[in-house]
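Components:
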Amino acid sequence: MEVLVRYLTKKRDGAIAARDETVVCETVRFGRSTDNEVELPAPGVLLHEGVLHKREGGLFFEGEGDGRNNISIDGQPTAAGPVKLGSILGVGPYDITVLPPEGDAEVALSVELTRPVGDTLETLRANSTTRIEQVGVSKRSLAWAALAVILVAFLVWPIVEAFVLDRQDPALSKNPIEMAIETESWPVAADLAWVTGPVSGPHKFMAQNCSFCHERPFVRVQDNVCTDCHADITNHVDPKVHDLPEITTALCQSCHKEHQGAQPITREDQAFCSSCHKDLEDVASDTKLVNVSNFGRDHPEFRPTVVTDAEAKTFERVLLDTANWPVEKSNLVFTHKKHLNAEGILVPGKRERRVMGCVDCHTGDEGGAGFAPVAMEEHCSECHQLNFEPTVPTRRLPHGNVETVIDTLREFYGDLALRGGAQVEDAPAIVRRRPGGRSLSEEERLEALDWANKAARDAGDRVFAKSVCGTCHEVSRTGDGPLDYAVAPVLVVDRWMPKGRFDHSRHSAPGCVDCHAAPDSEKATDVLLPQIETCTACHGGETAAQRVPSTCVSCHDFHLDFHNPMRKPMQNAQAEGG
Amino acid sequence: MHSSILVFRNFRYLKITLAILAAAILAYAIHDPLGKPNGGTWLGYTLGGLSAALIVWLAWFGVRKRRYGVGKLLLEDWASGHVYLGLSLLIVATLHSGFQFGINVHTLAYALMVLVIGSGAFGLYAYMRYPRLRSVNRGEGALGDVWALVAGMSRDCYEIARDLPDEVYTLVEAADKETAIGGSVWRQLSGKDPKCASTRALQQVRDLAERYSGRDADAARRLVRVLARKVELLTRIRKDIQYKALLDIWLYFHIPLTVALLGALAIHIVTVFLYW
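Structure:
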């Protein structure tokens, strides 16, 4: 058969150009390759798409290939089917229309590329994304988003939470410690994000409650916050004596810096003290204190406070000067040397010698830093038994009061004389008689009491002399009468260096006698303190390299408990109110 | 210009930076504050003020570089100072912190600053390295020509494959219609496309060609040559896109992080005085 194939091409101006070809064939083959009767060279067409042939008076299209062909007849996808005049056969991007036969041609077909695929360059460009700004978000929106998140999370929400939602009613003021405790954590207590560093250990219990200390925004923490709990913190100097406002009225936080982590917030640096104490005359011209800047280098020799008059209770600070050693006028008579005899000391009534040590009398106080006072009953009386009558050795005198001693002697011997039964050899018979039985005559009673007075007087002379009271005390006669004795009042300082702290429990490695020359002390008035060189043998100043680095506050306090409180209670509150 | 900003004016900004750092380190070494060194001492405030001023000045570079011929300093002055003074912040701000870090907004500001400087350092590295690699990779032709070359090769492939079996023609069609350059951020940064339709077509046509004979075999061999050339060009274009992406990507961190840092810095300054 003869077939007219009219290739239609759309021009740029929209007009359609037609190019006719006539083929003579048995069947009309459609496909990409040149061996087809109708060549369809555009992309999207198979090598052989199908065949059109005559059948039973009509045309019939039969697709080829494995079903991948993109064939439709009058818009209906199909693999094969009859084709009539006017039918549109779709093959890939082409539309093939069956035209009325023209001239010699039995069959006429128009071929038009109606669904062209894009230009290869355009396709490549459309497929490609070559700049980062073409994908995802812009730098600007990222920036705004990040800024918004940060502002809300760390500024807006904390301010709302702390200053709008969480205002404590001051009228509900309770125990400050209860008020300080806040159980919420971040992000509910959102202002915790503002914390500049961990709160120190002792204050950690209130570390979640910022506004407990930071009472008002943009105002430094005031002292009343501290003195709510630390009400009795004392001054360093008496402001009435020394006009030093920089240390008497400074804010607590000017020295005590919080939010510095686990370290203590107390100042321990040597320079803080030495800034004044190295040239003390510049800040306090009338002071009796001696300049010092470094314990290891220029700390003055110790000046213990010793008793100068036990009766008048007067004390004096005296330099530990080897040429002129201070004397503690405690009115005690006592020697350490005798008690610390290496061969021991005889224990009365036991016929044995006991080797004594320091701890037999000097026992640690609670906490172990210092020592409990030595007490006669507890530490001395096992040996110093205060018995006075050899025939009644269990009977002892009371300790502590001369009148009571004299009364005791009189009562003892009066009772013994009148009751009888005394074992005293030189006593009259009436005193040595068997107790009980008949009543004494007036004459016998006088004789007995006469003996009793004499015996009491003799015993008093014995007791108040060296053998008993005088062993330890300064005893004097107050008159010429019998038993006119007085025992000088005893006064021993509790601490020779009250402004210094020394923890004996932390210095137990050396023995007591390494520092205290007690075994050679023959007088109770000896001040058995070591000189400073004993300390500086081990301890140096803050920066000492080969000795224990020690700062001023290793031994001294800044807040001295013999001064008044540094802040009057509510002082700040009143100042603020006024 | 890219490497010259470092040596600009005979290292003037390096010298200024080193002088600032020497002064800061010396002051920190001799300063003996109460407690640990921190931002609240006189030196802490000084170093903090200096750091904040530097951050604001450095951020202003983003505004300044869009205004041409404004002020006494050239843009190169700004760029050179931006690099050296920006790096110096790592030391100045660390000294300001007194090495105290925690989980809080202050350390957040510090961390953002470090990230900004880190991304900037990468940017500097990128500007020193990639433009040269990029021009080496481009070779003679401009990139626009290369794209047209690729497109032309796709057309050539259609032409050559027209009489070849459909199994080949389908691959050629896919190589045209599915080949993409770039894509996601990661695809652009990687400079590779493991699912490249052209590469796949090349491999498979090469395999198929071995089975053909006669005219088909000739055509298939020609097709393989064109496809191979196309793939090679695509590889170079993708490499180019990779360099471009690397030159751009750091700004997607540098700029948003800078804005975030300015916010965190403002919060840092306000809150240390809010809770004084």
